[in-house]
Amino acid sequence: MVFQATISNEQTAALDSAHFDGEIIVVERDEQIKDVCRDLSAQKIIGFDTETRPSFKAGVTNKVALLQLSTRKRCYLIRLCRTKLHNSLLKILSNPNIIKIGADVAGDIRSLHVLRHFNERGFVDLQQIACRWGIEEKSLRKLSAIVLGQRVSKAQRLSNWEAGKLTPQQQMYAATDAWVCIKIYDKLMATVPIVQTPIVEVPTTQPKPQVKVATTEKVRNEVAKGEDKTAKPKRRFRPRRKEKHSTSNKL
């Protein structure tokens, strides 16, 4: 099977919508996390996505509000605006033996790092691997259209993900976005690629202390040149002046 390289917006809009038909579980209490992670830890492949409440002010960005982790039959909508990014969840995101499939994975991981730092492992980005099958499109909507013949609706993308209660439309949208990543990945893996290159996981992002390194090198260079401005100046030794004794009172 050969996939087409591109697809127009008109062609995509004419396709049937993809809908997750499994169980959707909204997670917004800490006591739910244990059962969630028990199920996810037993999986080999998980669909991955995040949602953030949109900001309509220039320069203002909100924190990630929702983390979607989906199996083939069940999708967990973890409301990070109401519960923490627990250590048990970080173990899932850091486990190289559990493959997490998403689109624009690096952007989602950056959003999660704002909440807590972790060493992400086992992530595969559909945007990076689709070219192996000759697909040039990058959006999840068009990747689904080309690979599955179904479009992914984006009607709820700009809705309020920090609302008191997620609407059924929001829940279906969020669950479908994560679950459809597994479907696309499965279909690609069942098809012989055009380019025979290995699939590699998304590189781990490690923050580099650039400011500290630059400062240290600057000080080291100044010391070598004898120009260390941070060092205290050495006091010069001045010989003590001898006192002159007057001889006018001597007889």
Protein described:
The chain has 251 residues and is an alpha/beta fold. It has a single domain (9-189), classed as Ribonuclease H-like superfamily/Ribonuclease H (Nucleotidyltransferase, domain 5, 2-Layer Sandwich). It is built from eight helices and six strands. The chain has helices at residues 9-13, 33-41, 87-94, 105-115, 126-129, 140-148, 168-189, 210-224, and strands at residues 23-27, 45-52, 64-70, 74-79, 99-102, 123-125. Strands 1-4-3-2-5-6 form a six-stranded mixed β-sheet, with helices on both faces. A hairpin with a 3-residue loop joins strand 3 (64-70) and strand 4 (74-79). Helix 6 (140-148) packs across helix 7. The protein starts with 8 loop residues before the first helix and ends in a 27-residue tail after the last helix. Residues 207-216, 227-231 and 246-251 have low confidence and may be disordered.
What is the H/E string?
HEHEEEHEHEHHHH
Helix-strand category: alpha/beta
Q: How much is the average pLDDT?
A: 86
Instruction: Write the CATH fold name.
Output: Nucleotidyltransferase, domain 5
Approximate helicity band:
25-40%
CATH class category name? Alpha Beta
According to DSSP, the number of beta strands is: 6
The CATH architecture assignment turns out to be 2-Layer Sandwich
How many structural units, i.e. domains? 1
The geometry reads as globular
How far the N terminus sits from the C terminus, by CA atoms, comes to 126 Å
Sheet with the most strands: spatial strand order: 1-4-3-2-5-6
* Total helical segments: 8
Rg calc: 30 Å
CATH superfamily: Ribonuclease H-like superfamily/Ribonuclease H
